[in-house]
Amino acid sequence: DYAQIYKISFVVGNDEPEISINQAGTISVYPNPFNPETTISFYLYAHDLNKPISVEIYNLKGQLVRTLFSEIAKKRAIYITWNGTNNQGVRISSSIYLIRLKTATTNVSRKVILIK
After folding, report:
1. pLDDT at position 45
2. Residue 98 dihedral angles phi and psi, to the nearest 5°
3. Choice among 7-16, 32-41, 95-104 with the minimum mean pLDDT
4. Could you report the per-residue pLDDT of 13-35, keeping only the tens digit for each?
5. What are 70-99's pLDDT values in tens digits?
6. pLDDT at 59 over 90
7. Which of 34, 29, 80 is closest to 53 using CA atoms?
8. 109, 98 in Cβ contact below 8 A?
9. CB crowding 51-67: b at 16 or more within 10 Å, else e
10. What's the CA gap between 5 and 60, in Å, rounded?
11. Burial class (CB in 10 A: 0-12, 13-18, 19+), 18
12. Which of 6, 68, 99, 104 could form a disulfide with 51 if both were Cys (CB 3.0 to 4.6 A apart)?
């Protein structure tokens, strides 16, 4: 249901921190800042299932750096590991980047910092 809030938890990496997503339509990033990779997670509203969603990385100039996900949503909980590379597979420089989640009901962004 669109109005329901769910909580899910998962474990990432060797340190086994617990990440909680308490609200559908938000982006969680761990670790942040990151090097060499980070996990981006989000939980979709039921209305977003079986509809196109996308997760993209932009630099501070607003240029598309990487499309991480562009598919029809089949699950409500989605986890993506990003290794700090662009669409050509080239490692990008240290900076602040914006992660953009676009669904039928949501258009949100979150800052992520890549450090070397």
Report:
1. 86
2. -110, 130
3. 7-16
4. 444 334 344 567 788 999 999 99
5. 999 888 888 999 999 999 999 999 999 999
6. yes
7. 80
8. yes
9. eebebbbebeeeeebbe
10. 31
11. exposed
12. 104
For residue 3, give both structure tokens: 């109005």
Sequence-distant (6+) residues with CB within 8 A of 86 are 65, 66, 92
What is the rounded CA–CA span in Å between residue 113 and residue 93? 10
Mean of pLDDT over the chain: 82
